## 1
Amino acid sequence: MKGKEITPKRLDILRRQMEREKLDGFLVSSPQNRYYFSGFTGDYGFLLVTETRNILFLDSRFLEQAKEECRGWEVIQFQRFHQDFSSLLSEIRVRFLGFESQKLSFFDFKELERNSPGVHFVPFPHLLEEIRGIKEPGEILKIREAIRIAEESLGEVLKGGLIGNREEEVSLELEWKMRLKGAQKAGFDLVVASGKRSALPHGVASPKAIGKKEFLLFDWGALKDYYHSDITRTFFTGSPSKKQREVYLTVKEAIEETILQITPGRSILEVFQFALSKIKNSPFKDFAFGHGLGHGVGLEVHEWPFIGPRSEGTFQPGMVFTIEPGIYIPGWGGVRIEEMVMVAKNRVEVLTSFPREISVI
Amino acid sequence: MKGKEITPKRLDILRRQMEREKLDGFLVSSPQNRYYFSGFTGDYGFLLVTETRNILFLDSRFLEQAKEECRGWEVIQFQRFHQDFSSLLSEIRVRFLGFESQKLSFFDFKELERNSPGVHFVPFPHLLEEIRGIKEPGEILKIREAIRIAEESLGEVLKGGLIGNREEEVSLELEWKMRLKGAQKAGFDLVVASGKRSALPHGVASPKAIGKKEFLLFDWGALKDYYHSDITRTFFTGSPSKKQREVYLTVKEAIEETILQITPGRSILEVFQFALSKIKNSPFKDFAFGHGLGHGVGLEVHEWPFIGPRSEGTFQPGMVFTIEPGIYIPGWGGVRIEEMVMVAKNRVEVLTSFPREISVI
């Protein structure tokens, strides 16, 4: 009964947006948005939402599954997607169709357009992502659960002796622990990056053995009930050098002060600039993170809102996102600390709780 | 030294195609094609191939990684993809740019087009996939290894008592075994479907406990060195009923006779029709597979060529693909058998070797 977890509120919000944009239909094609609105977990399929109808448009492989999962949805089977979808549009007289322009391929767009004379295709690059960016209480519970699983699992992994083990062995053990605790899978390719590799912002676990007196960076998370967690901690595999300690404390101070800057209504861009300036005003200014400061987390591990130099808008109640400043010194090592933060009506809560003090393992 | 495994032959083939199509540049945007031509394993980035240059176009996160992985490639960093890529096109005077039209989003296309006056964007829905569809010997070795890991792992899982265990526990154990044998991960969400659930063509492992005298269908595979395996077997958890046995033997006969039909140069469509007619001429004609008969396997678990009612062309030496007929009786159960097949110059080899006799576990 997965479908029961999909609230009707989501479709109401979409329909209000459609009304405002003068659309009489919306084509939903990306897996996460399809799941968000319908509860359908299959690999392939499309939603057509109109003023009065919820249509799940599928090939034969997924009919039985959809009937189980998607209460309140008409299931219509297609043979050839482009032709049959165009016929459906014509049959139910859709004239202005919104679509996900960052997700639909150029090819699908062209084929649909060619087969649908008289239909206006109206691109929306992130309308559905913005709706999804404001989490419902039920979603936040799932994210909390994904965080709990990830944090407990890393805690257990750290109790073993890690020095001498290969990064990829440690990654496998961490994923295994998360899955035994009920995760569907790891939320993404886990980063276990030791020594110089900690300077790679995306250094997924490699065959390198973890050495002594190194940085050891974990960027890890779980997928639980289709929701993600995404956390980073950097440890020391021996008493840190003066420089290692300084780099670490610079990042720690940056994230702590940055989180205090976040309030409902605060400009996202300003918070990014604040965090970057903290590093730029440190002795490590040449090695400040070149990636964004953070991103929304939910059905996707990286989703709207993105917190970076081109952010617009303000923090809104219901947003759940990461804050993850870092310092990366090529050929030497790096430090990143990543927390997950929720904005509520009158407060800001750090959802992650793994200690961020200097920790020698 | 991952880059060493990327043969220059691939780029030669692409350049010959570009010459034939009168293109002076090709934009590669999908992860698998990016890896295939450059060896780059990062999450995000673009290739621009011209007559004389191999350019990897990346944001700051991946610069170090690319320099390690991609010998023979110029690495150019961008800040804003659409604007900076358009400037690059203008700088090196690309006028006819091929692109992957089934992969590039409508949004990216529009932004590139808007920023690139004078450049003609020429869509190719599956040109790169066709190049990748003809495997090199080194790729076939990796696929064989992905098959070996998957088959050995299932063999070990079946030795344990499975009745009473939940499908998802069995799936986790199978993945764990594959990873201990060196798989990067499971090749896809593994299907472990027992009883009635075996009638779901995509019934990923659920909390259902495996019962007695049921069908138990595994659709499983490994990812090893970025190459996939994809195999299906259906077992019995107790002595099969007459009908269960009949359904099974119908599928078994269909796949065995179908594989004998495959030769280099044989029409792909005809082989599909042959397999379907085998089931349509059985007592289970109303329950024949509605999915394709098979698909290429390589860097993607489902890739070109697709073997179905709209297939064109013929089987070519170097193709590696699945053959997977099935019978699905809703509410009762189903059987699918899936083999991986390679076409060579003068012969056809079934790469998978797991027994397909009736097997009670």
## 2
Amino acid sequence: MSNQQSKATWIWYPDDYELWLHASVSVKRQFRGYICPPFWRLDTAYSNVSFRKTFELEKPERLTLSVQGMFVLHMDGSMTPTPYERTPVTSVLLPAGKHELTVKVYNDRMIPAVYAEGETIVSDGSWEVTCYDAKWVKAASSNLNDIAYPPADFRFAYQSLEPVSVTHIEGATLLDFGRETFGCVRFEGMAGKGKLRLYYGESLGEAMAGEEAETFDELEIAHDRPQLFVTPVTRAFRYIQLQADEGLSWEAVTHDYEYLPLERRGSFRCSDERINQIWDVSVYTLHLNTREFMYDGMKRDRWVWSGDAYQSFLMNNYVFFDQDVTKRTLIALRGKDPVQLHLNTIMDYTFYWFIAYYDYFMATGDLSFVEASYPKMLSLMDFCLNRRNGEGFMEGHPEDWVFIDWADMDNRGEVAAEQLLFCRSLETMAIVAKELGDLENGERFHRLATELRTRIFELFWDEDQGGLIHGRLDGQLNKRILKYPNMFALRLDYLNDDQKQLVRENVMLNASVQKIKTPYMRFYELEAMCEIGELDYVLREMRDYWGGMLDLGATTFWEEYDPALPIEEQYHMYGDKYRKSLCHAWGAAPIYLLGKYTLGIQPQAPGFSRYLVEPKLGDLDWIEGTVPTPDGEIKVFMNQTRLSVVTNRSGIGLLRFTSTGRPSVNEGELRLIGHGRYELELPNTDYRYEIMLCQENE
Amino acid sequence: MSNQQSKATWIWYPDDYELWLHASVSVKRQFRGYICPPFWRLDTAYSNVSFRKTFELEKPERLTLSVQGMFVLHMDGSMTPTPYERTPVTSVLLPAGKHELTVKVYNDRMIPAVYAEGETIVSDGSWEVTCYDAKWVKAASSNLNDIAYPPADFRFAYQSLEPVSVTHIEGATLLDFGRETFGCVRFEGMAGKGKLRLYYGESLGEAMAGEEAETFDELEIAHDRPQLFVTPVTRAFRYIQLQADEGLSWEAVTHDYEYLPLERRGSFRCSDERINQIWDVSVYTLHLNTREFMYDGMKRDRWVWSGDAYQSFLMNNYVFFDQDVTKRTLIALRGKDPVQLHLNTIMDYTFYWFIAYYDYFMATGDLSFVEASYPKMLSLMDFCLNRRNGEGFMEGHPEDWVFIDWADMDNRGEVAAEQLLFCRSLETMAIVAKELGDLENGERFHRLATELRTRIFELFWDEDQGGLIHGRLDGQLNKRILKYPNMFALRLDYLNDDQKQLVRENVMLNASVQKIKTPYMRFYELEAMCEIGELDYVLREMRDYWGGMLDLGATTFWEEYDPALPIEEQYHMYGDKYRKSLCHAWGAAPIYLLGKYTLGIQPQAPGFSRYLVEPKLGDLDWIEGTVPTPDGEIKVFMNQTRLSVVTNRSGIGLLRFTSTGRPSVNEGELRLIGHGRYELELPNTDYRYEIMLCQENE
């Protein structure tokens, strides 16, 4: 943060932009020509909002104003004495002295928003807004700094792509764009009259299936002369089967790839090209799904699901570090008060939302966003606390979806995995409340979390089986051992060393425990394996499972993958032949796993003010990569003989590594902390630490 | 209610149509070319709504569907097996057997709404809707029964009016339409290019004041050939000053009077033509203000103010008996949860909203609307109860407006008049709760009301001064005597006979008590005078006060009138020369006073199942009139020698009258109930009771 003059930016009532945008994109989902509206409440923006700015000027100043909506200006509570044009972009003369300018805006189509720029006065967070609830709150913004682009237009970037192959089959034309992509289709010089049909396929089979494809367009063309024709709806596909009535012709067909411009601040390379390819395809998968919000998948839902989004946030932190999309997504998920149901109707998805704030704060150190969200965090937590059963546990009400994973399990009653997520939610609330100086609530949430954690382990820890059991229904324990509660407990660091050892052997490495089939839960499973030191296992799994998708021709990672299925059933899901999403954000877990556990970089205090660097080669010869932080990147290179770390522009790192011989360093003092384990403080910023490892073959 | 097959009607999520419509009309207010958005929260409709109907058919049936919004149909939870056109009006084949049809609709511009009509299945209150809050509730409707007119279009009637005079003054043209009117202006054969300016005036002075007028239009015309031009915004006016650039010409200018088609079911005539004229102008004033909602006034706010609307409901019951506009208005006023402020920000206006339900229920007997409103009545009452001070009284918080009247009074602290309105609000809640079978809340509200009424009289009744004092601030009684609490106590029947007598002499007839200047509060003042038997006084006041406005040329009644002001100041208000509204609903009080106290007709049980007929001649030779009820009209004629009552089609009347001699009746038995006072039960429906009065001169 600097004290320089603030930049003008579009401002609005808190959360309104995100809620409006979310409602408008949520209904773009289609299934075979019909809309699929989401089955949760969609909240929208306030149409009637007032903005105010108190200022003190030595001399009069002309303020240029652009307003999204109908508006009127008041100065010191009355109509402005000086006239102004009643146009969207206008200007008003601010008088010298101390005054208050009010801009009252109405807009029931898009959100009321204001952009103002004068010599010293600009629209920014120093302005206040009200929806006329007798409270003035800080105006919200989201880095939309161009007067010509009000928040109505979400700005994407575009790239024109030609098909890599065009094939003519039985009167149809098959376009292959080489890999999964997203956007509209552009026909140059389209001429004639008739119907044009486009059947989109993430797989070749889907495109060839005609109206059995998940999405298609049937468009009426009536051109008197050849002219450009662009399809009206953005679609996800690799293949398109084109069917055109006889009277139609065109000169060329291309595709406008539409995407959010994102900088790849993170990187990963290693000695295994298959792992590198997995990282690249993961990043592309995540990139396609990172748009207005963090979406689940590109072809089907394109919805904001809290559980999916949470993983995307964690992956995003290791490659794009785009926090605007994270903030937009968290706001959209939460909606407005009153809370009537869990987020996306799913109990676990409410908890992931809370937990996301913990990870957001650790990654960014941005307390101001957390503060803006705090009232809604409190009311959502109230909603949860009011739904606890007599034992203090959360169990599904009839209207709740208790999900956890697409898998065979009985989620009625008190599900242990849910209680663990609830517990971390309470811990997050305790941390946030204390950071914001709300000590009373901080204490309360801390006490609730501590009590809950004790009760979870009293009830669900099974020493004989060596793990957490599934849950309890109507007072009857369900002693089934599944990976979910155990891997959650590992990632949340709720187990002592003895428990970890038991869980490792009896659950995580136990082949008789039910296998996990979704990349979604493989994310936590493999993270848990990393936490118990099984990095080699994780790398092998990556090669087999993610590599398995690549072997089947995947250009992005999938919603679900079962290596045991025959190829012709790989795209089945939800009872339909091509429903499975082949570009699903939760498929991109390797970004996170490789960044956090191979490069070994993670924050230890908010905003990377302290961070850990603990690279691990596993079975690789060398690794190299970059992890973004709020203030520059951290870079790591490691092979058998050399370890190099470039620190970021602020923050203090702590390096941990293993060396069988005696290592040396160019700066600082190595501490031996265990058998072959060394630690080095990294206080120098923007600095390259070079460690020579005397690695002996064991 | 009948068991006949229900008519198809447009249905939607409860309250959504009214909230959407209210938001869209609330921002039509303008002041000299700028918008004046309301200073309260505007709530809008849910954009994402699902409709469902469970049906059982002996044979398949084709259902015609019109949907306002994007939609998809599901049968028994899945996509419909039979195809349907994806157009706004479509049809679907319902299979035989027991099934559930779901229509999922998204509309973020207008409200999601459905119209469906088959041989046996139609869209009506048997359908359920959800906004995805896990609750299915009864679909709402409002007698919009035409498939071609979805709820997006509020349908008005139009009448083409020519100016009664056209005058040319200093390059301008002055149009006079003879009386206050509302709508757009139509220029036939408008030709040329240039600016056209219309300055609207409720008074001649206002139209001639140019940009000092409250409303005006400055329009750009560019016609290549003569063609029709209609002004874009509806305005209220009697006069228009037209200024046109030289290049412009037109063949004829007329006005499209826009109004809600309403039947005058009530009537009033008497031997005094001035009173008859006051009744006529009152009805016209009310009619102009009765549109999408009950508006305060036509020129300036055109807003829905609860205090104003409450009086309009009461007047409406004596002439149009249009309950649809009452229901729309009550829903719009209440808005959505959470409640954050009083209605229109005004404490008394919250109470009038509650009290309106009492009067609505008495007039209509319609418990179903009350039931639909009950959850929001409860949450608004919770809001009030949570704002009571330690003594159990309501006092203004900093963000509250404690209004009562435009008058000199100190409304800080505990204002007695507010407590009386609060008390009747609690009584209304007690009645409604009991009617709906919510006995626990019924008891609670009854107890709260009883306690409050006791406390009010303990604290504010001043036996020495013979009335209720103004209030208390910081523990200090404000012993000032004003009419407000006393006339409220009279109309709410909170005074015993001794108290009534004291209030009559010391307050209501006491010339040293501050005079009331607004027709708004004159409504309650004159009602209170009627309650203490001062009908002659009321008739005199009507001739003087309302007649005084007529003498000044009024064609509709005003927002405020002070006979003492010189003519050139009569249109001043809020510091501006022409701000006063000359067509203000609260000016139409005579409709109510003449119906309730001269014709003497009012319900005594819900829906006029029992009603009172107590006509009073006052100083008039004869009176004659009709009062509408839910089931037909009640008619009364009375002169010195004859009294005739025609009963409605159901309900039992009770006739009371005074006769100094011995009267006779064509049916039933007269009971003498006091000195010259008689009572007659009217059990025959649709029947003319004729009473011969032997009136002797006293």
